[in-house]
Amino acid sequence: MIDYLRGPLVHLENEYIVMDVNGIGYRVFCPNPFAWAKHTGEITVYTHHHVREDAIQLFGFPSRDEQKLFRKLIEVSGIGPRVALGILSGGSPEGVITAIYQENITFLTKLPGIGKKTAQRMILDLKDKLDGIGDALIATGLFAQTELPMAASGDVWPEVREGLKALGYTESELDRMWQTLKHEVFPEDTADSVMKRALKMLYTGS
Fold this sequence. Notes:
This protein has 206 residues and is of the alpha+beta class. The chain has three domains: 4-61, CATH 2.40.50.140; 65-139, DNA polymerase, domain 1 (Orthogonal Bundle), CATH 1.10.150; 153-204. It is 41% helix and 19% strand. It contains nine helices and five strands. The chain has helices at residues 64-73, 81-90, 93-101, 105-108, 116-126, 135-139, 157-166, 171-181, 191-204, and strands at residues 4-12, 16-21, 24-29, 42-52, 55-61. A five-stranded mixed beta barrel has the order 1-2-3-5-4. β2 (16-21) and β3 (24-29) form a beta hairpin. The chain starts with a strand and ends with a helix. One of its GO terms (biological process) is DNA recombination. Belongs to the RuvA family. Residues 152-206 are annotated as: Domain III. This is Holliday junction branch migration complex subunit RuvA.
């Protein structure tokens, strides 16, 4: 099993990145490929090596917590790798874990591909199996509030902006991008979903 890859990023698309590891290009499907766009030099991606009859695929994550949570999610009946990837693209690992602990079905059903029955199965199957994943962050109370923001769309922008600045984007780049993006952000959007859209827009220039 391939547990992680380390090497330079050579290409990215909407759903995956390509890494060069010792001269071999590995296609790795990620929750948010564009988050890697500003990285230079070698990157480390924690992976899940998924094998089925008609395909062998790699799914990759920036942290062990996301890797572990992904592996727990695909143990739930009705959640395959693609749905699990969508869950992680729609919410942070800490937010998803907290929602499961709090039995917050409203939050979980806002995630891509998750209906009420699947949300209930997630809670039933995983509530007692997530020890060691994001515990330190949850214990601080930083992620106690898991309801998706329902205020004006611009309310999530300050958080997204700070995250983008940390990745190396300039004030002028962010100001130009926001003039377009703000028309495509809705009250129910989370900071994570807006971040993914913003990164794609910054990378593609559209």
